[in-house]
Design goal:
transmembrane helix, SpdD protein, transmembrane, 89 residues, mainly alpha, elongated
């Protein structure tokens, strides 16, 4: 049940009879060429444009979140410094 399944070897095993003839490999059938129609080109262009807009929106949102966080940390630092300065007087 848990024993490994090995593929058949391309070389004759040691216990094989002398007239061992390997079977020839068959070539894969050729793939058809991709044909682009004007409609498919338009669809690809629209999909690519939409992808660029979505990725750009996500990156700008991340940059804006970092900027807002940095500004709030700076404001907190100024407030804490002000509080510490007023306690020393």
């Amino acid at each position: 049940m848990f024993s490994p399944k090995y593929p058949t070897p391309d070389t004759p095993p040691a216990h094989a009879p002398a007239p061992y003839i390997p079977t020839p490999l068959q070539a894969a059938p050729p793939r058809p060429a991709v044909r682009l129609t004007p409609g498919s080109v338009l669809t690809l262009a629209a999909g690519g444009g939409a992808l660029v807009l979505v990725v750009g929106t996500v990156l700008v949102s991340l940059l804006l979140a970092v900027a807002v966080t940095a500004a709030s940390v700076a404001v907190c630092a100024v407030v804490v410094r002000s509080i510490l300065q007023s306690d020393r007087r």
